[in-house]
Write a structure and sequence with these properties.
Elements lengths: L13 E4 L3 E4 L3 E2 L1 H4 L7 H13 L4 E3 L5 E2 L2 E2 H9 L7 E6 L1 E4 L2 E5 L5 H12 L4 E7 L12 H12 L3 E7 L3 H8 L6 E3 L10 H10 L2 E2 L14 H11 L3 H12 L12 H9 L7 H8 L1
Parallel strand pairs: 3-4, 4-7, 7-10, 10-11, 11-12, 12-13
Antiparallel strand pairs: 1-2, 5-6, 8-9
Helix pairs in contact: 2-3, 8-9
Length: 289
């Protein structure tokens, strides 16, 4: 996405998705460009996306249901970055259905082809790099089978419309159900320094060569990450609490991919600066307490 020799995001290292798609471990979530952020002008969002590329970020997380009006993440990505660089990985999600901008249930297996084809058209690509089946609302739907819906996405992968498959907001049983149908390349679940209930699934991913890309890596909505511990460690490293939270995430497991979202170039630069932060064993003990 840029011609710099050593852009900052490179420092975080690389994870190879599915054995063939290297991505920097620090990416960018695009929801805040279209929903709930400070940007009201598409040109500002396009500028931020291009700046992310200059910083070496080559993993963008999006969804067809991100946005309203002139701010829609797919269209912003296409306007900012097409024709796309060969190393760019765009991850998108399917599952929630919306009517008039409001949640309207979950997509049925028969809905998924049209949703995938719509994303292909809107992003201007022939094949999606990574397509997640997003399950339920904010909390995992424990015990609910995802097999029929995941199988529908797997069929589209066999047709060549999707390169790699992922699952989002799933528990360990649902992850294994999906893996029994087709290879799972990535999991996107709720996880950050103050929300660690998904540690078992993260370990499952690490052992199985599956990337783990937490949503809300810095908290989201009304959540607050544990600022006291973060502030103490941040002062020790001349860093910010946000940077420590991202560094903790990248240090916790080699399988983690950080995809913090932002609508601020200032925060984008701050997030990118986290990749050079090296937490010590003492730091990690303190942060994990």
């Amino acid at each position: 996405m840029n011609d710099q020799t050593n852009p900052p995001a490179t420092i975080a290292g690389t994870y190879v998705l599915g054995g063939d798609r290297p991505v920097k471990r620090l990416g960018l979530g695009t929801m805040r460009l279209a929903i709930g952020g400070s940007i009201s002008d598409p040109d500002a969002a396009i500028t931020l996306l291009r700046r992310a590329g200059d910083l070496g970020i080559n993993h963008l997380d999006t969804a067809g249901f991100y946005g309203a009006g002139a701010l829609r993440s797919h269209e912003l990505i296409r306007e900012a970055l097409a024709p796309y660089p060969d190393d760019l990985v765009i991850a998108t999600k399917f599952g929630p259905l919306f009517q008039n901008g409001r949640p309207a249930g979950q997509a049925a297996p028969t809905d998924l082809r049209a949703l995938v084809e719509d994303d292909l058209r809107r992003l201007g690509v022939d094949r999606l790099d990574l397509a997640y089946l997003r399950v339920g609302g904010m909390e995992p739907t424990h015990g609910e089978s995802i097999g029929d819906r995941f199988a529908a996405l797997a069929e589209l992968r066999e047709e060549g419309l999707i390169r790699h498959l992922g699952v989002s907001n799933v528990d360990a049983t649902q992850l294994e159900e999906a893996r029994s149908i087709a290879p799972v390349t990535a999991v996107q679940n709720h996880f950050h320094i103050h929300h660690r209930r998904d540690t078992a699934v993260l370990a499952q991913c690490e052992q199985s060569g599956i990337a783990y890309a937490p949503f809300f890596p810095l908290g989201g909505g009304k959540e607050r990450i544990d600022l006291d511990r973060l502030v103490t460690v941040a002062a020790r490293h001349d860093a910010t609490p946000r940077q420590v939270a991202l560094a903790w995430l990248l240090t916790t497991s080699p399988a983690t991919l950080a995809i913090p979202g932002t609508s601020s170039i200032e925060h984008l630069l701050e997030n990118t600066g986290a990749v050079g932060l090296r937490l010590t064993a003492t730091d990690m003990i303190e942060l994990n307490a």
